[in-house]
Every structure is written in structure tokens, then in C-alpha cells.
Write a structure and sequence with these properties.
Layout lengths: L2 H21 L2 H8 L4 H7 L2 H25 L4 H18 L1 H12 L3 H26 L10 H19 L3 H22 L3 H17 L1
């Protein structure tokens, strides 16, 4: 990739962090990249195409950055600890805000919807692989929608970025609630075989009724 194209990708991310999706333009991107705004259209065709390229490239880079640490996770509580660290670091870097802004823009611009969803799917796939590994052998593994749970976790971290802006204490309580859920699952996994079978039977019956 040429230096100019990379500068434009970085400039698009910086412009959204500073101006939000509503305030981003070829001019603001070019200013952040330190290039002539005509180069936006020369290299990427449209502002939307540049934004989606920046979203996909930026997200892929951050997923790769965290993949090794996620692969080392050995429990749900450890996964949440890594999740907290991930959220704090990505929030500080402005990456969670960037993805949240892209998702906001996708609500009214269908050209952003599919590419932004594909970028978010990179996080979903990474988290899903960790959850499947951690839940293997658990009573929850047979009845849980792990793919759906991975999407819920990914969506929660984006939502917590927005929620934390108006209620920091509430965001912390939400994170603590996730910690409690992880503890509950670990307690269930530590039950003896008879208790686990009984619990699994109740979960299965409740799931069928619902």
C-alpha cells in the first residue's frame, strides 16, 4: 500500500474521532492526513469507500493485536479481565468510539452498513472462538447460542462506550454484572456429575418451554 493511501486511512479514522460521523468529509479527512482532498477521490473514489476501507483495515489490525492474548485466556472471568483491558485501551485510543460512529452512520447510510458489519464480525469471530473453547464440556454449551452470545458481547462493548459517556458508574455496574455471570457459570461447572445432570435437565426443559 502506498504511503498516501495509508495516510488517508489513518486520516479517516482521526477525522471521525475528532468530528464524528456527521462531521467527517473529504476536507476533514485530508486535513487530518496532511494531503490534498482530491487524493481522497483519486485513491478511494468516495468518502464512504474510504471510511469503510479504514474501518475494515483498522479493525483487522486491532483484532490481530489482541488475538494472542485472547488465545491465552483460560476462564470466563479471565476473558472478562481481558475484555476490560481491551475496552479501556481501545477506548483510550479512540477505536471503540470510531466503530460506534461507523455503526451510527450505517443506520442512515446503507453503503456503510454491510462493510461496517463485516468489520464488527471480525471481533465476533474472535470472541466466538474463545467462548467455544471455554464453554466446551459445560452444561451451557449444549443449549447456549454461542454465536449469538459472541454478538451480544461485541455489541455490549460498543454500547458501553456510549453508555459510559452519560453514566460511568452505570457502565461499571454493567461490567460487574458480567463478572457475576461468569462466576455463576464457573460454580455450575464445578458441580458434581449428578447435580450437573439435574441442572442440565432443568435448563433443557426450560429452554423447550420458551
Amino acid at each position: 500500500m502506498s504511503d498516501t493511501k495509508q495516510r488517508l486511512l489513518d486520516g479517516a479514522i482521526a477525522a471521525i474521532r475528532e468530528h464524528g460521523i456527521a462531521g467527517v468529509s473529504a476536507r476533514t479527512i485530508a486535513a487530518a492526513a496532511g494531503v490534498n482532498q482530491a487524493l481522497v477521490f483519486y485513491h478511494y473514489g468516495t468518502v464512504d469507500d474510504l471510511l469503510t476501507a479504514a474501518c475494515q483495515a483498522g479493525t483487522a489490525e486491532r483484532v490481530a493485536h489482541w488475538s494472542t492474548r485472547l488465545a491465552e485466556v483460560r476462564s470466563l472471568r479471565e476473558l472478562l479481565d481481558v475484555g476490560r483491558a481491551l475496552h479501556e485501551q481501545e477506548q483510550e485510543l479512540g477505536n471503540v468510539s470510531f466503530l460506534a460512529q461507523m455503526l451510527a452512520g450505517a443506520q442512515s447510510d446503507e453503503r456503510l452498513a454491510a462493510p461496517t458489519g463485516a468489520a464488527l464480525q471480525l471481533w465476533v469471530d474472535e470472541i466466538e472462538s474463545v467462548l467455544r473453547r471455554l464453554l466446551a464440556g459445560s452444561p451451557f454449551a449444549e443449549i447456549a447460542d454461542v454465536a449469538g452470545l459472541a454478538r451480544a458481547v461485541s455489541a455490549a462493548f460498543i454500547g458501553l462506550e456510549l453508555y459510559g459517556g452519560v453514566d460511568r458508574d452505570g457502565m461499571e455496574r454493567a461490567m460487574s454484572a458480567l463478572d457475576q455471570l461468569a462466576v455463576l457459570i464457573e460454580i455450575v461447572d464445578d458441580l458434581g456429575p449428578i447435580a450437573r445432570r439435574a441442572l442440565q435437565g432443568k435448563i433443557t426443559r426450560a429452554t423447550r418451554r420458551s
